[in-house]
């Protein structure tokens, strides 16, 4: 069978019922700067915090609420059933999950390659923060890393991650060494829990979990500390998150600030008329068989500013649609091997994963194709799955080198500083 990949560009253009939200309106820009009381935000550093008029932290929920939400998240992921390959193949989000795995695989391969460009035989140490059940175990094995520390809030998930690791080690014979930590990465100090607290990581990965830290400023800072304090200079922190601007844009175009389709639903749990809180902006997220718990809008621009205080400089960000454009040519074989796209029309004896109406974009292109035979098909994704895929974005930060200032605090050397030094020396 000859499968012709339907490019994501054509897919985006042809899905008419998805709002054109790839350029944010002026209204959604308020997410960048407006706290819940609508007043401007002062710059945040290690010695100041944003306070409301009554002196309380304007961005943080109370401690009991924080603890309650953490328990809800942990309980949800602890109770997710371990599903076999056969059941996953029959899942209504089969191709979406594969596409997400492709994105993660590309991130891992790209940034391990960047580190090895300077030292090919370098043994790599990794922190997989918010690791879940260990969905990236085989990816780290293929990346030939030396050691991985897995950490997650859900104890049952961490136990399942360790079981998967032992199974993989029995099958492979040789595998990276690992340790497993059950902890709330937004509240606990991970370094105190490492077998070797002096460990330095070359890579930190956080896949589909960083947004939980935006419940409060203190939790975002704790997460950043856990990410950065053991990350080597020139090491990378990368991951994937729901795109808050995309969520807000779709919510603004919907009734009751709720939107979705047969496989997912998102509903804002606060009144946008009062503004978009920088922290604690909760929404309900249901994704068939994967997620069914409250999450928090992740203000990425604010995170970039906070991350800079911890020596992390943004080097890449892209929505999944753009990520595909950036990497699909180089990693085309991986797209096929992971089975990221569904064959259209369905092969003889098989059915499409979605309803026929979800493939109108593919049908139009199929009808326009010339010189096709019964063995040809398109590689595509149902509109329902693609709507979910385009909620997400990928990112990468690089840990900067630092010098110590007169107060004994690290002063990080950014790319802008290096460029200025180069210009000064050449003038």
UniProtKB/TrEMBL annotation:
UniProt-annotated stretches for the region Disordered: 29-67
Keyword annotations from UniProtKB, A to Z: Methyltransferase, mRNA capping, mRNA processing, Nucleus, RNA-binding, S-adenosyl-L-methionine, Transferase
Amino acid composition bias (Basic and acidic residues), ranges on this chain: 42-53
Compartment(s) of residence: Nucleus
EC number(s) stated in the UniProt entry for this protein: 2.1.1.56
Domain (MRNA cap 0 methyltransferase) ranges: 91-400
Listed name of the protein: mRNA cap guanine-N(7) methyltransferase
